[in-house]
Amino acid sequence: MACLEPDAHFGLCTPCRQDLPANRWHCRCCALPLAFAGDETLCGQCLQDPPPFSRVIAPWRYRFPVDGMIQRYKYNGQRAFARPLISDFAEHLVSILENSPEQRPDLLVASPMHPARRRKRGFNQAADIAEQLSKRSGIPWSADLVTRNRRTRPQRGLNRAQRLANLRGIYQVTRKPPLRVAIVDDVMTTGATARSLAEALIDAGAKDVQVWALARTPG
Question: pTM of the prediction?
């Protein structure tokens, strides 16, 4: 990924970075993009059915060009397209944690992928992101604290109810988690994966679960 400017950093110059679709107005809990939001605004879904996670950090909206960058990274293995996103995300997180150290998690947990799907794709993008965020933040990460005990239908194309049903009971926590955990993934869509993972971690002993994702879809 490159904008061909000589001063590009991790593939993008400052003007190109400023053109990325920032998720400025969003639900304070699940980071759902909103037309306008204050610091305490909650979306209708979080009001009606509060999620088990405490908050989502997702700095970009999943639309052009971020959607294409993530798709080429995730499905085509072109990791250069994710480099500027992960680099800027790491800087964003470090700034947040410096200002609010009480929100610093004890461990980053990569959203798990079934081994068969990982072999087919060649890598787990969530683990790749978690490893890079760990290096920048100094927070340890794990790829095996949570595993998938069966293969499911791909989540793409499913609505929220179908995604929740598709993920029911598939996550297994392999050991007692620390008190504060952040789940790391590339995109948060309906929140079904995040809910299922957070519930599994809390059932195993975690007290606070956050979700860190590069981008958030409109729903």
Answer: 0.89
Query: What spatial distance separates the first Cα and last Cα of the chain, rounded to whole Å?
Result: 27
* Sole residue written with tokens 């590069």: 214
Alpha-carbon span 109 to 183, nearest angstrom: 5
196 vs 137: CA distance, rounded Å: 26
Q: pLDDT tens-digit profile of 72-107?
A: 999 999 999 999 999 999 999 999 999 999 999 999
Give the contacts of 15 (CB within 8 A, at least 6 positions apart). none
78-82-86 Cα angle (round to 5): 150
* CATH topology (fold) of 14-216: Rossmann fold (3.40.50)
pLDDT in tens, 162-194: 766 666 768 999 999 999 999 999 999 999 999
Structure tokens at 1: 């990924």
Quote the CA–CA distance of 59 and 39 in Å, as a whole number: 15
Which amino acid is residue 30, in one-letter code? C
Domain locations along the chain: 14-216
Six-digit token string for 68: 């294409």
Q: Taking the mean position of all CA atoms in its chain, how far away is CA 119?
A: 21
Write the Ramachandran bin of 25: left for phi over 0, alpha for psi from -120 to 50, otherwise beta.
beta
Structure tokens at 22: 């920032």
The residues facing 26 across adjacent strands are 33
